[in-house]
Each structure stands twice: as C-alpha cells, then as structure tokens.
Design goal:
The protein has 282 residues and is of the alpha+beta class. The protein has 5 helices and 16 strands. The protein folds into 2 domains: 94 residues, Probable inorganic polyphosphate/atp-NAD kinase, domain 1 (Rossmann fold, 3-Layer(aba) Sandwich), CATH 3.40.50; 138 residues, Sandwich (Tumour Suppressor Smad4), CATH 2.60.200. Helix 1 packs parallel to helix 3. The longest helix has 16 residues. The relative contact order is 0.17. The chain binds NADP nicotinamide-adenine-dinucleotide phosphate and manganese (II) ion.
C-alpha cells in the first residue's frame, strides 16, 4: 500500500506524541526505534498532552491506550501499529514505522487527517448515584455463577425479559470483536449506532427473547434491569468494572467520539476482508 504523504518541510506543525506498547520484545524495540526516528523529525515527546498516541501491539493495546487517555480523547488522536496479525485499530505494519513518523513530522494540519468513530455511553445506576463509562468496543453484562435474568426496556418501554448468559452492547468499530462471535452484524463506523447482541439466550416454551441482535440509532436508549440478588459481571472493553449492587444500566450512542489519525486510506471493508477472509478467494 502506497503512503500518501506530501513532503512539506515548511509550515509543518510540531506534533506532540506518546507511544504505548504491548510490552513484548518486538513491540518494545519498535517503540524505542519510534522515539529515535521521532527525535530526527523533531516531534515532541509529551506523555501528558499528546496530539497523537501511537499504540504498538494489537487491538488490545489500543483499547488500553484509549482508556489511559480517556480524559482527553477530544484532543488526542490514536494510531496503531500491529506487531502480530492485522488489527482493526492497529492497521499499520512494523515496516511502515518510518513512513508513519515521517507523516507525523511533515504534518501541516492534523484536523483534516482525523476520522471519528462512535463510542457507547454506559450509565450505571445504584441506590446512591450514577457512574458513566465510555466503551470503544463494547460493554457486556453477564451472569456470574448463575443465569443472567434481566428486564430490557427500549426507549422507556418494556421490551423483553432476558434469560441467558449475557448481553453485549457494541459500537460499530467493536462489531468485529466480541459481537462478531455472537453472530452480530458488522457495522460500518460511519453509522452512529450501538448493537445489542444476546449471549446464549434461553428460548423454549417458557422463556422468550428476540433472538436477533438489534441496532439502535442515536438518541435511542436501552435500559437493563437485572433481577436483584444475582451476581453479575460487567465489562467495558477489556476491563472488569466493579460496581457492587446496582439497579440498572443505560446504554446509548455517546456524544463523544474517538479520533483516529488517518494518514492513508484503509477502508473498513478491506480490513474486514483481510482479517476474516484473507486470500482464500484468490
Ligand atoms: P483478547 O482476549 O486478546 O482479545 C480477543 C481478540 O479480540 C484478540 O484477537 C483481539 O485482537 C481482538 N480484538 C479486540 N478488539 C477488536 C476489534 N475491534 N475488532 C476485531 N478484533 C478485535 O483481549 P484484548 O486484546 O484485551 O481485547 C478485549 C476484547 O476482546 C474485548 O473488547 C472483546 O471485544 C474481545 N473479546 C472477545 C470474545 C469473543 O470473541 N468470544 C470474548 C471476550 C472478549 P489483538 O490480538 O490484536 O489484541
Ligand atoms: Mn489482545
């Protein structure tokens, strides 16, 4: 894939950056190399207020980077280099490291290189207060040591009583992760949606759930009221959230978005094809 990056030395902005790596030897060595090349391009290493966070590792590494910089996602953009298989967030190859640094060093305006993807807003309400989280991939609710029994309400109307292993609420860019294992649809990240997918629902003559996943647009919301007295595990991306006893969870498309720097095109459906189909069609 050719790198489209104009060679403009005059008027280039000095990009502030940070590098986060997975911690394995290959990723750590690439991170060291990145810092050396970045110094040559006069980029500024600024772990506190970076314009760009470069994640070296896998998609999981980028999820980590996202949550590490969650308080400044309106100002920081992400870019990922994969040291294993192609990632959905980590779509630069290690061989392209110096091309990436060069693009960052010769940048005249970052804003027109930014793509924004939707996030899921998750609000957890207990007796005292409400806590909010943002998910880049998904939020899951699962029964722990017993079946999850929960009332689902969509836009303040009763929808169904869910019984099964759990519920997964994913973003469009997270639709290729856990959601895909649940047979959910892959959603293009230009669509501002969340998808609700079932994890092993119980369906028989007594219990009934929809059985298909549902895609909600912006301004719709889904509330989940788990039956009291059962143990529940809540995850936001790779994180387990310890919330104690809570009454309900509300999920909706977040107002805020995640920003990625896009120095060259790599369309979502091409990434889907490369990751899941490969060369088998040739
Ligand atoms: P992990 O166990 O290493 O992740 C599982 C796999 O999901 C890895 O291959 C990871 O890629 C990949 N992945 C992460 N985000 C993706 C995305 N947006 N599109 C396609 N693949 C993606 O744990 P992790 O690296 O910390 O990632 C946490 C994520 O794992 C969760 O957000 C959830 O989506 C996923 N997960 C999936 C299942 C399942 O499919 N049954 C179960 C639990 C969790 P890398 O190897 O590049 O990191
Ligand atoms: Mn991983």
């Amino acid at each position: 894939m050719g790198i489209v990056c104009a060679r403009i030395d005059k008027g280039a902005i000095r990009v502030k950056y940070e590098v986060i790596n997975r911690g394995d030897q290959v990723s750590a060595e690439l991170a060291t190399k990145f810092h050396q090349l970045a110094a040559d391009e006069q980029l500024i290493h600024d772990p506190v207020e970076p314009d760009i966070v470069v994640s070296i590792g896998g998609d999981g590494t980028l999820l980590n980077a996202f949550h590490q910089y969650i308080d400044r996602i309106d100002h920081t953009a992400f870019v990922g280099i994969h040291t294993g298989h192609l990632g959905f967030y980590a779509d630069w190859k290690p061989e392209e490291l110096s091309d990436l640094v060069r693009c960052m060093g010769r940048e005249t305006s970052l804003e027109d290189k930014i793509v924004k993807y939707p996030l899921a807003h998750v609000q957890i309400t207990n007796e005292q207060d409400t806590q909010s989280f943002l998910a880049l991939n998904e939020c899951t609710l699962r029964g722990f040591e017993s079946t999850l029994v929960a009332q689902l309400r969509v836009n303040d109307e009763d929808f169904e009583m869910f019984r099964g292993d759990g519920i997964c609420i994913s973003t469009p860019s997270g639709s290729t992760a856990y959601n895909k294992s649940l047979n959910g649809a892959l959603i293009h990240p230009s669509l501002e949606t969340i998808q609700i997918a079932e994890i092993a629902s119980i369906n028989n003559r007594v219990y009934r759930t929809l059985g298909s996943s549902m895609v909600l647009p912006r301004h719709h919301h889904c509330d989940i009221y788990p039956r009291a007295g059962r143990n529940i595990v809540l995850t936001v991306d790779h994180l387990n959230v310890d919330i104690g006893n809570f009454r309900s969870i509300r999920c909706q498309v977040a107002e805020r978005k995640v920003r990625f720097v896009r120095f060259r095109p790599f369309p979502f459906w091409n990434r889907v094809k490369e990751a899941f189909i490969g060369d088998l069609l040739e």
